[in-house]
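TL;DR need structure tokens for one chain.
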Amino acid sequence: MDNTNNTTEQKEKEKFKLIQKTDKEIEIESLVAKEIPDLIRKKLIEKKIDAYTYTPHPLLNGPRIHIRSSNPADDLISASQDVENDLKEFKELLDKEFKKEKKESKKNNIKKEEKKEIKKEDKGKKEEKKEDKKEDKGKKEEKKEDKKEDKGKKEEKTEIKKEEKSRKDENKELKSDVKSVEEKSEKVGKKRGRPKKE
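>> reply
TL;DR here they are.
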């Protein structure tokens, strides 16, 4: 049982399997990273080195890369390092871009918050203006009411003056009536022989 556990552990640790190696050729099978052989092939082609990838069978582990050159092992190591450097550079660019994006989104969020605050302040100012307008309208209505009251008081005063005048007129009439009655009574009294009142 120890032997089977060791072989499975070795297979899990292996990421590449050497299929063929000669002075002019090398062939490796990728067991885990299925995209790496194609990236290495592109780098080798850029260096004008004969290389190709293929999958021997769909049920087998993974794609293989075949390299033919004067020093295939060194070329494979060089291309692998180029791919690794490209991936590191790509990761750094992504990190920088995401950091920029985060900063910009923070700035945008801050700007949005500021805009919300400004809108709240503007809304508050508008409500204050509405309240001021309502107060002004209320004051105008109070002034109208005061004017109506003043007008009513003036009308009352004129009515009172009219009533006083009419009372005075009535009093004058009554006095004149009383005078005429007294004169008549004196005339009647003279006729009857009564003495004059003093």
